[in-house]
Amino acid sequence: MRVANSTEYRDTRYLESEEMKISSLTISVFCHETEDLDKIKTSIEDLFPSVKEADVRLEKVKGHFGNYITLLEYKFGKSSASTIFEEIVSKISSTDMIVIVTTLSTRMDKSKLYLRFDKQYLVGRKEITLKEGNDVVRVIVSFNEPFKEVTKELKQIASNRALHKETGTAKLS
């Protein structure tokens, strides 16, 4: 059983204050023929239990070289988007949170935040880490507030993480 550390608790409490107004969230991943779709689904569902409440879409498409690719997509509406976002934020390392905050101008378009996490790392280690490029799990978060407000709130979360890291707060497992 995993116990949330004080950093995670404070971050989650911050999100629960309803200062961040999230209108929707989408998690999507491409699964190639050589990959095990069930293993990818299970990894995502184990890491983020709330995905079981999402509207799930599976679409099989033909790739450039004639191979089949399955698009797995989880969609969350307003009522459940905040919950899944809290789960995602609680799993992001303090280092990755700092990277997200320092690169927000390239990760946001109007009121949408675009994140990419390493698919192989998620499946193999049941953890998330940022990754650029392909072979990723994509997360798109739509906010009901302007870029400036979202930036401010994400910086606060990153700051809380950095503060706890400096004071030596250990992660409990």
From TrEMBL:
Q: Please name the Pfam families in this protein's record.
A: RNA_binding
Q: Which SUPFAM superfamilies match?
A: RL5-like
Domain of life (superkingdom): Archaea
Which PANTHER family does its entry note?
Answer: EXOSOME SUBUNIT, EXOSOME SUBUNIT, DUF54 FAMILY-RELATED
What this protein is called in its record is: RNA-binding protein
Q: Name the species this protein comes from.
A: Sulfuracidifex tepidarius
